[in-house]
Write a structure and sequence with these properties.
19 strands; binds adenosine-5'-diphosphate; alpha/beta; six-stranded parallel sheet; 495 residues; globular
């Protein structure tokens, strides 16, 4: 199958969250299965053409932009980690004015660039122009989240009638909380008629909702876990789009994200002091030692370490964890014999609160920064990994934790519920500790439950670690499910 993956982020070029990991890992897994995969991304300022030795395609590319035309360059390279016999080619849309600046969607002073609707409308148009320039028409155009949501719309309302008669669109929703809602004056940049604004699902309380339009137009849709696919069809989790998702239920499914086992593997991880496996856990104890040292904690093999790595935003349960006066992190560290390490960046109040907790508690340490290597050391060196998410489309960190023999403590929601099984004290079964309600008390009680088991039921804890490490979260299975999904969509248009 010929597949063009069009995304606003991809590891290692530009990463904001799990989306970047997924786009590259899925592309590589599909290429390994023999499909022809190409990728297209904006060429952000951080993507250094010279350093990456990107080649320029000949000649500029014209992109229609609402009654006018924008000109862009295209450069290209191969995705690192590509199978040599079937490499993934990546194209970068290079437009100085739209993408030649710091930040993917924004910068701290302006978290959502004012011209984002225009930037990503341009990107979605450019995807079609790129195919025309290459004279290469994919079977599947796979778009991601609101920045890619106009791709299914342009295909349905314009391009399928032209050169893309045999192409289908797939749209993956990585997080329903981000919909790309902007003033409707921005609709002008799409070059589409106002009839499409109303018939194509753009209209949202007199604003323009890009993700909603994408959901209405995509030939096939998915999100990144079966449980989140169910949840998003309810008013509690649907972020106002539950009705439209229920409408499209026949074409909407959940496919769990995998993890990149080349990068996240305790048997071969340059960021940890010594490799380890379920058969020999010596290396995990070494990682714990180094982690305690890195964070300035006293060395103590028998004190449980709780790790937390996250974007510091409400979705991740940071209010219930770090909220001033009511958050659970303070009483957890005050009352329990444990060490707590935090790595993350995000909302200013939360960063400040975390700094203040670190000043008050000797067993609570934090680094307010983004650091890939340190995230590996925390996954390896912690005993438990905490994810009290309000909602979690798939979640990667709990799968990294399981692979590293670190027991997840998670809220029973989204992809967390699909990947973690709750501890059963009767049988000793399960791979983690779970709770239902997002309250500071529930977090406190569940951490206490886990830490109690660590101190009093050590053989069961060690058995749980090993059970987690044996789980297979590699991309092979999920990649096959994406192929089935593409095939289902193709059947619809090629009857
Ligand atoms: P989301 O995509 O909602 O942020 P996921 O759990 O799916 O959540 O993926 C988050 C990814 O970002 C993981 O790979 C995680 O390790 C990484 N990450 C988040 N914050 C940091 C940080 N401060 N330093 C290093 N990695 C981080």
């Amino acid at each position: 199958m010929k597949i063009l993956m069009a995304a606003s982020e991809a590891f290692p070029y530009a990463k904001n969250g799990g989306l970047a990991d997924m786009v590259s890992a899925l592309s590589l897994a599909l290429a390994k299965q023999g499909h022809e995969i190409r990728m297209v991304l904006p060429r952000y300022y951080v993507i250094n053409r010279a350093e990456l030795k990107l080649e320029a395609l000949e000649g500029p590319m014209g992109v229609p932009a609402g009654g006018t035309e924008e000109w862009s360059e295209v450069c290209t390279g191969l995705l690192p980690g590509s199978p040599p016999e079937n490499p993934v080619r990546v194209y970068f849309i290079d437009h100085e004015n739209f993408f030649g600046r710091d930040g993917i969607y924004g910068v701290p002073a302006e978290p959502d660039f004012l011209d984002n609707p225009r930037r990503f409308t341009f990107f979605c148009r450019a995807v079609f122009q790129l195919c025309k320039k290459l004279n290469w028409y994919p079977d599947v155009l796979h778009a991601h989240d609101w920045p890619g949501a106009l791709i299914p719309v342009f295909l349905k309302f314009e391009e399928r009638q032209k050169k893309f008669a045999k192409t289908v669109s797939a749209l993956t929703i990585h997080n329903l909380g981000y919909q790309g809602i902007y003033g409707k004056e921005n609709f002008y940049h799409t070059g589409l008629g106002w009839d499409v604004f109303y018939n194509g699902g753009f209209e949202d309380w007199n604003m323009m909702n890009l993700l909603k339009a994408g959901i209405c137009s995509a030939d096939i849709l998915n999100t990144v876990s079966p449980n989140y696919a169910r949840e998003t069809q309810t008013s509690a989790y649907g972020c106002r789009l539950d009705g439209i998702l229920r409408d499209r239920a026949a074409d909407y499914r959940g496919i769990l994200n995998g993890i990149d086992t080349e990068i996240w593997n305790p048997q071969n991880d340059p960021a940890i002091p010594m490799p380890y496996s379920a058969q020999d856990m010596t290396g995990k104890a070494r990682a714990k030692e180094l982690l305690q040292q890195e964070f300035g904690l006293p060395p103590s093999p028998d004190t449980p370490v709780i790790g937390f790595i996250s974007r510091l935003v409400g979705q991740k349960g940071v209010g219930e964890l770090f909220g001033p006066a009511y958050g659970s992190a303070y009483p957890i560290c005050r009352d329990m014999n444990l060490q707590f390490v935090v790595l993350g960046t995000g909302e200013a109040w939360c960063e400040n609160e975390i700094r203040s907790l670190a000043g008050k508690l000797s067993n609570f340490k934090a680094k307010i920064t983004h650091n890939e290597a340190l995230s590996h050391l925390i996954e390896a060196g912690s005993d438990f990994f905490l994810m009290p998410s309000r909602y979690e489309p798939s979640g990667l960190n709990q799968m990294y934790s399981l692979a590293y023999g670190t027991i997840p403590i998670v809220r029973n929601t989204g992809g967390l519920a699909d990947t973690v099984e709750n501890f059963d004290p009767q049988t000793g079964g399960g791979t983690g500790f779970m709770f239902d309600d997002l309250t500071p008390q529930a977090i406190y009680n569940t951490v206490a439950w886990a830490v109690g088991a660590y101190h009093n039921r050590r053989p069961q804890i060690e058995a749980m670690r090993k059970r987690g490490m044996e789980k297979d979260f590699s991309w092979d299975n999920s990649a096959k499910k994406y192929i089935e999904m593409y095939e289902d969509a193709l059947k619809k248009i090629r009857k």
